[in-house]
Write a structure and sequence with these properties.
Layout (H helix, E strand, L loop, with lengths): L15 E4 L28 E2 L2 E8 L2 E7 L2 E3 L9 E2 L3 E5 L12 E2 L6 E7 L5 E7 L2 E2 L2 E2 L3 E5 L4 E2 L11 E6 L3 E6 L3 E2 L2 E2 L3 E5 L16 E6 L5 E6 L3 E2 L2 E2 L3 E5 L5 E4 L7 E8 L3 E8 L8 E5 L5 E5 L7 E5 L2 E8 L14 E7 L36 E9 L2 E8 L3 E2 L2 E2 L3 E5 L11 E8 L2 E7 L8 E8 L7 E6 L7 E6 L7 E9 L12 E4 L6 H8 L4 E3 L8 E2 L10 E4 L3 E4 L10 E5 L4 E4 L3 E2 L4 E8 L6 E7 L9 E7 L5 E6 L3 E5 L12 E8 L2 E6 L2 E6 L8 E6 L17 E10 L5 H10 L6 E6 L2 E6 L12 E4 L5 E8 L7 E11 L8 E9 L23 E6 L5 E5 L2 H5 L5 E8 L5 E4 L11 E8 L1
Antiparallel strand pairs: 1-41, 2-5, 3-4, 4-7, 5-6, 8-11, 9-10, 10-13, 11-12, 13-14, 15-16, 16-19, 17-18, 20-21, 21-24, 22-23, 24-25, 26-27, 27-28, 28-29, 30-31, 31-32, 33-34, 34-37, 35-36, 38-39, 39-42, 40-41, 40-43, 43-44, 45-61, 46-47, 47-50, 48-49, 49-61, 50-60, 51-60, 52-57, 52-61, 53-54, ...
Length: about 900
Amino acid sequence: MRRSRGLTAALVLSLAGAGTGIGLVLMPQASAITPPVAFTADELPTWQPDGIVFAMAQANGTVFAGGTFSAVRPPEGAAGAEQEAVNFVALDAATGKPTACKLAFTIGDGTATVRTLVVSKDKKTLYAGGYFGAVNGTPVSSLAAIDIASCTPKASFHPGFPATVRGLAVTDDTLYAAGDFNAVDGQTRERFAAVDAGTGALKPFVANVDEPGRAVEVTPDGKNVLLGGDFFTVNGSNSHALAVVNATTGAVTKTYSNIPSNSVVKDISTDDTGFYTGHEGSGGGVFDGRIGLRLNDFTEKWRDRCLGATQFVLPYEGVLYSSSHAHDCSTELEFPDGKRNFLLAQPTNHEGAAPAPVDGFVRGPGKLGWHPTANDGLGEGIGPRVMAVADKNDVKYMWVGGEFTLINGKAQQGLTRFASTGDVGAPTTPVASAASVKPGEAQVRWRTSYDADDSKLTYRIYRNGSATPAATVTASSLEWERPQASWTDATVKAGQTYTYRVTATDDAGNTSALSAVASVTIPTSVQSYPNQVRADGANLYWRYDDTVSPYVADSSGGGNYSGVQFNAPALRQTPGAVAGASTAMGFNGTSQLVHGDRRQTVGNTFTVETWFKTNTTRGGKLIGFGNNTTRNSGSADRHIYMTNTGRLVFGVHNGSARTVSTGLFETYNDNKWHHVVGTQGPGGITLYVDGQNKGSLNATSNSTYAGYWHAGGDNLSGWPTRPTSNFFAGQLDETAVYPTALTQAQVKNHFDLAKAPTDSVSSVKATEDTYINQGAPSTAYGTSTSLAVRGTSAYETYLRFNLPAAPAGQVLKSASLQIKTSTQAGAGTADTVSVVPVTGTWSGAGTTFNTKPTLGTTPLGSIAGVPDGSAVHSVELDTAAVSAVLGGSYSLGLTSTGTDPLWIWSSESTAAEGTPQLVLTFGAK
């Protein structure tokens, strides 16, 4: 009998921000992995069989594995020679190496296999069931007892099972068996039986069923036995796949009628408060998931209806670990139909009140952050089949056996293991972006990282290359749900450029690489269009200004509903739909789309909005809601799509498709930017194009399902005037979703604001630079990777820029010089550094202290001290003085009157963000 330990833990998911510009909420230091998960996802070196492992058990630091194989070999790349192992191997729980215990399970005719293993309560006897006729030559009949100390079969234990034994459970004096047999020792016992644990003598327990038995467990109080399998009757009573019977007589205690007829029970496990079943089915309407049931009355607590046959369930310290190939957990509001997830963990009980039943069943507790990967492997292509927890030297090990040939992407066949300590895997690198729509505020956003055994990660945001984080944020994520996290920097100054990088750290201290640099220039005035979208309450806002795949930032005020690019749509397409530097995203019309990163539900009141530009004649979906991500959604509505002729259709589904469309001759595939909005509310649905109402319909409801927002494509099957393509060919920009129905005035305002003047920013890098050194008066430093500034003994730095003219209709609003201190010790200075115009001539190759140019006497700006540590710093410059020299070459000098030198990177440096540059912000006159 398999039972877990009784400790129950609670999963706490949190999002907290800390740092510059906002209040601090610091999270307590957690254990090396996120509780209540007890094991890392980092695989340990383990010897591996040449076939399939079906059964496991453990005792005294040794793990026993049985199945269908003939040999074991070292892990990939490790030393050692292959060893014979005939359907059985004993391994050291801590090292993963075979022990001296060798047992061969054989049969004279056919293929021998070990299908189930269980250890006696006193840890002295190992029981093995399967299909075999001898163990080390000792005759047996598909069931054997092994003395663990001597590793020898007990010849006196010889019950006669004429067919495969598939499940075993043991008490102090009784061994229960499940399988394909119809008799034991010549007496009728149909698929379930009980024998004396010491002698093997048949007991009077009778629980006859009509189809194979696959699993058997004893309740913790020893009074009842839990039966699982394919059956439909137990002792003549109707009960499909699962039943509870009296442990002494086999009389039926509880029957079940709510498991689909095409599904079976593959495994049963217990802990102190409940029992758990794993299921497999075939055909439509199957149940492949897990059920949690109570021990006091054997009723159901919850049902996890993920699809992908569950082979094994193992409760341990409040967590139910399972092996399956789960590929669709939509009913659990988790991942949609897609790739297979082989090893999962979830709490054994809901925290707090259980959710309300859906379709008559309470959903299972949500999945936890434990996600080692595997593959289908050999045989039936099931992947993992069996699990066991062993301990040695105060370390716990989760062992997994099955058909797989890969673990975490590395070659490993049939056996693997994970420890309770030694988490060494770092989170994935965050993908970050930065944006600002008004002075005094920068939004830093990133797609949360994935860590296979830590759902709660700590993010550190570094500003302007500093080694000290400006903020710390804690956020939770799973492999299939990586929501955006964000932080607002409220200390930024208008007209200056800031850079940000983000790292992710797990609870063991493993830290990702720094994200790519995300740069933003703070506008000198409010950016009208995006500010209004945020003010009108958008909870999803994709602006498509992203520079790195696959992340699409959500620029809404706090929705954090980021997107994921699929099949690499084209980034940063210009010009975008609205005035300014914002860009669009291009879609090929055959396979590319963006889908939301978080599953959600959408009510009967909402607005969808986007800008588009296309000349397609194949139509396609611009924006919509669906229940899948990268595959065609089975449920899809709340969408706007284009017909082959260029008409626009907005529709919802409330039992049938309800749509509003533009007129027969109102087509929009003219390769110009257009604005389209669809709303639903108490007044029905309305379609707007370019600020104009194109029609309404009294449709006040829609389909209820959980799903994801899509841009660029999804299923359109069954919709009126369906276009040739589900996918949109063209450009999209400024896609937004609101939890309210925008008014016509709001829609028209958005359309008009797209033309509103906005700031434009030019970043002008130095074309030439050098410095002079009074201590080496004849030396030129034009090729140096560093520049220096000091009063005594003098260093002066000179920078040359080719300045652009102001764009038509705009004037310079702000100017700043951006420099980055070098990495050498003491690169900062306590002195004030001034920026002055260079009035004389100079060159990088020829200028020395002896030939230094004359400088202007009126500073353009200054910075009062620069801290040590390599970081970017900005100096605000006199806007009028810089305006006067736009459109030509201009030189700046950096001087000081003190004795503490400043060292900065030059344009010859390869340091990130190292080249000195001017940041020029232009705006309307």
